[in-house]
Amino acid sequence: MTATDSEMAKLKITQIRSTIKRLENQKRTIEALGLGRPNNVVLQNDTPQIRGMIRKVAHLVKVEEVEE
Question: Where are the domains of the chain?
Fold first, then answer.
């Protein structure tokens, strides 16, 4: 049984640092998360794929768990 989007935990991801002078794969990961500029905020489902992307750019983002 899989959880629907409304049942999944959400993560609030805030970009806190710029991607200037960063590796290309880190820039692409930030873009794939839906970010692009410092202080941008997105809500993403808490999945292993998203957690892996966050781990890759942990020094550029701040993550908070959102209770719904």
Answer: 10-66
CATH superfamily name and code, 10-66: Ribosomal protein L30/L7 (3.30.1390.20)
Q: Which helix (H) or strand (E) holds 63?
A: strand 61-66
Its pTM stands at 0.88
Contacts of residue 4, defined as CB under 8 A and 6 or more positions apart, other chains included, come to: none
Separation of alpha carbons 41 and 1, rounded Å: 30
Give the DSSP letter string of 13-57.
Answer: EEE-S--TT--HHHHHHHHHTT--STT-EEEEE--HHHHHHHHHT
pLDDT in tens, 5-60: 667 899 999 999 999 999 999 999 999 999 999 999 999 999 999 999 999 999 99
